[in-house]
Amino acid sequence: MTITTTVNGVERTVDVPAATSLLTLLRDELGLTGSKNACEQGECGSCSVWLDGELVCACLVAAVQADGHTVRTVEDLGEADRLHTVQDAFLAAGAVQCGFCTPGFVVAVADLLERDPKPSDEAIREALAGNLCRCTGYSKIVTAVHLAAEGAART
Amino acid sequence: MSGLSPSTLAEALEARAAHPEAVPIAGGTDLMVAVNFGRLRPDSLLDLSGVAELSTWERRDGALRIGAGATFARIASDLGEFPPLVQAARTVGSPQIRNRATIGGNLATASPAGDALPVLAAYGGEVLLASVRGERRLRWDEFLLGPKRTALAEDELIVGVEWPVVDGPGSFAKVGTRNAMVIAIASVSLQLDTQAREVRLALGSVAPTVVRAPEAEAFAAAGLDWEDRERPLPEATASRFGELAAAAASPIDDVRGSAAYRRHAVNVLAQRALAWAAADRRAA
Predict the structure, then answer these.
(1) What whole-number distance in Å separates Cα of residue B270 and Cα of residue B279?
(2) Which of A147, A77, B80 is nearest to B90 (CA)?
(3) Which residues of B are less than 8 Å from A48 in CB distance?
């Protein structure tokens, strides 16, 4: 079926089978491979994107449900020479090891800071409960969120 | 036709009747897992997420009615006057899941571990169903027939849930391996009705469906001092209540926990729930 959706500000039209997930649409049809495909059951948060401004797992949204809606992915947050505050903070804090979970974390943290610019440790842990990292042990990720919050406060 | 996206309930019911092969999808947080793992290969989907009238709620004539499409994120943020419901909603999955998952989806999936279901059972709620043939309502235990089995007819959609609003404290609690993102090993929801002088206790994840614990309920109702809310709950009452609650469970051993552990968890959770209710009455 034909789906027209606005992804990172650009209207895109694609033809996909009915049960295709939004994640497959983004990665395989649009070449936006920043959102990672890992658990495919909403456990890991590696495919976190915004659908109409709400944080969702792209693997659990049917592509048809994005028809006529707006999607924002990690690719929209920053570029290699102009990183997003959250990406800068992850680098500065050493919150990245293998990096596979990082795009999902960056999106989830950006979402948190839009709603709660100075989150407590508890708020951070609750907001990131749906993102799994098997390398870092989370402590540097929490540090990165505080760094990003301070950076956001300075600018 | 491989995708149906109605924007009104009437259109959705027409589409459901005309395309019985189309699988209804709302939040998709259960359905898409089955699709991603190849357990379900639908040729077409009936997308209910655009039906605005399914995601509303209202209090009317002493009852709360919640549309099937209400997400757990909205329930948690907007329905604070119903603590057991909000506590259950907050334990569903992760923020990403709660932004999509709906109370109607919890009913459609009909997992014994569905977090909203013990709350619905403790409130004595009804499930509202509709089709082009008309509307009907089933009590929660007439709708939930077994693990992943419901009374939903082929041409029906779940429209919402409704229960009478009662006076009195209540809670929801569950046991799992983490504080988040966890499927319940055991859960309980307790609700006091101070006017009818009833205690209601529902158990999740410890039987083929959510169940109530009628003997424990009657025992606690007889043991509580309904006149003097200051009087503390005798310890023996709490411990017997826990035992009777555990006796109402018929759990199995599975990957998440053993039957014996589940019975023990119900015993502990039920005692805590009763103690919280007694404390809330004193504080009220």
Answers:
(1) 14
(2) B80
(3) 96
Name the helix (H) or strand (E) containing B211.
strand B211-212
Please give the CATH number for the structural domain made up of B3-164.
3.30.465.10
- Reported as a single tens digit per residue, the pLDDT across B183-204 is 999 999 999 999 999 999 999 9
- Rounded CA gap, A5 and A63, in Å? 9
Element (H, E) at A123: helix A121-127
Question: CB distance from B111 to chain A under 8 Å?
Answer: no
Please, what is the end-to-end C-alpha distance for chain A in angstroms?
44
Contact B100 A61 (CB under 8 A): yes
Is A85-154 a domain of CATH 1.10.150.120?
yes
- pTM of the entire structure? 0.95
Given the cut 0.90, state whether the ipTM is greater than it.
yes
Nearest to B282 by CA among B225, B228, B230: B230
Q: Which residue of B has its CA nearest to A49?
A: B96
